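Here is one chain, start to finish.
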Amino acid sequence: MNAPNVLLLDEPTNDLDIATLTVLEDYLDDFPGVVFVVSHDRYFLDRTVDKIIAFEGEGVITHHTGNYSDYQETSAKRDGAGSAASAGSAAASSKSSSKAAGTPQSEEPSKQGSKERALKMSYKEQKDYEQIDGWIEAAEAELAKVAEHMEAASSDSVRLQELAAEQQQLEEKLEQLMDRWTELNELAEKIAAQNN
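Its structure:
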């Protein structure tokens, strides 16, 4: 009781920019306790979760080991149709006593049977989708500046090591942004396809 090591997070990614979100993800990676997360942000769940408790509806609760993408794939296989049925809400248990999972937002069978509820972006996904090109451009510009500084500091080994570390961090950040860009564009294409 004097040193609790449990975090309960309800939609923690709402209203966070990429930099703050990265800090949160890094913090959760190193958090020594259990984290319970409820979230519609599939990318965040993939990044931070290794167990999912999915509320499937009609009193059915599914326990799944793995991230959200694993859960969705397993659900698709279980349902047989290739689209993961998910729930209104999912909570999570721990990652080796360390991390947890969330609320998937995906297609859910409607009352009409074979028709599916329309896909749409969450508020966070929409904001990221609108801004991600600018974030990628800024990260690429920062990388270019670091490369220029490395050329200028070619005789200073200490400065070169600092710049190399900075370059590596920027490359990782850019890779995460590109993954997020791909995910958001795929979602946008699916939404556009369903509206046609």
